[in-house]
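Hi support team,

I submitted a single chain yesterday and got back a structure, but I'm not sure I'm reading the token output correctly. Could someone confirm the output below corresponds to the sequence I sent? I've pasted both exactly as they appear in my results page.

Thanks,
R.
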Amino acid sequence: MGIIISLWLTINKARAQGAAAEFWPETDIWYKLNHSWRLSAFIPITKYNESKERDLNVYLQADYAWGKTKHLLFRRMMDENKVKVINAWMIRGGIMEGWSLGDNSGSYSEDMIFGEMHSRIPLKGGVLISQRMRLDLRWLGQEPEYSYRLRYRVMIEDELNSGKFSIVPYVNAEPYWDSRYESFSRVRLIGGATLAKGSRFAYELNLTYQYDEHYYTSNLYAVNVIIHIFFETARAKAAK
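Hi R., thanks for writing in. Yes, this is the structure output for that exact sequence:
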């Protein structure tokens, strides 16, 4: 309850100061093939509180993880659906389709191909530092114009276990370099936590602050609510 009140106060303060406040619901579906390979689909909806407009994005992606770390780290949560040793490296690639909904239909469309490289560094005490480099190849608009973005994200997280519950609080920061402006035009700061009980569902809540001089408002605050749904093959289950 305290977290919800704090988020509500933050949003109202943002509105009072002329910044934008948004609500971003999202569903993430994970399908584990084996110890290294995994498929996933992310379906976020961006809701603009002021205009009531919505944009839908659908991500389809695959990732491969490998390598050992200096300190062994076991995770039950976050982007892993069972207790396992965290791999040192992961690559991910995929596509994204985005478009506007409702009365706003047609005002936004995007096709994107992206690739990521993740580096994971476990520290003593169960803390995990991860770095991600990402390249977005984008085609924006009804008459698509090509551009690309380079993104770097650093994240710190920890896992707290209580019986069957797993909670992963985290913070991360991510600057974006955009070829349309030939500059770092955006930075995001995110703090939140993921909660799970069992292996099928997890629930994530975070608060995002975004500064973007080319967005409709430079300062954006967003509440992001994500439902994670996990599946796995019989082979992946048997390997545990």
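A quick pointer for reading it: Residues 2-16 form the longest helix (15 residues). Let us know if anything else looks off.

Best,
Support desk
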